[in-house]
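Appendix C reproduces, verbatim, an entry submitted by the partner laboratory led by Prof. M.T., so that reviewers can inspect both the input and the predicted structure.
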Amino acid sequence: MDLSYSAEERTYLIEQLSEFLTPHKQELFERILNLRTRHFVVAAEDIAQERNAGAMIRTCDCFGIQNFHLIENSHSKKATHHIAKGAEKWVTTKVHQRNEESTIACINELKAQGYRIVATTPHAPENSLDEFDISTPAAFFFGSEDPGISEVVEQHADELLTIPIYGFTESYNVSVATALILQHVTLKLHQSDVNWQLSDREKEELFLEWTIKTIRKPDLLIQKFLSEREV
């Protein structure tokens, strides 16, 4: 979907296309945008089960995490098909498919954007979730269901993070771990004075994107409105 419009075009299209949204839907978009954040992002590496990938993306949506990165190395395209099926359309999802280079490409991209890389693992009890610093942007990396995070992630991580476990089981299901971590860090974030909300431009871009995904025949409408604007 090409959304590379100028600021003026974006504002104009929102004004025109909003007529095709119900007042309830407009209010819903605006309310949720005020709760969305890119202060935290989630990256999932080699998720073998489609249901886990889908659950992770839905969890991101529930906790207001706007960006999700899906890294596909050995499980290429296993989870990709599941992404487009439902509520996942509200989360900005990027799929990394470069075989063995996918993981490092995602890490480098997120580091360049100012995120610290946080590798989730059950093997670092000294780095407990309770002590996690939410003040600076972080990208949480989750590994595949059986082996967990790869050596590449662990070697390039800025820090490790562990969820406390009090039973015999060594680790949580990956989608459950995602929910536990996001519930903890987003609660702390909302209670803090950290500037975690989206910028006005980001809100406007997402409002337009969500509107386009909601209304019928958006391409024809956009073409019509932009043509009229040029006359």
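Confidence is low (pLDDT under 50) at residues 77-81. Additional entries are available on request from the coordinating office.
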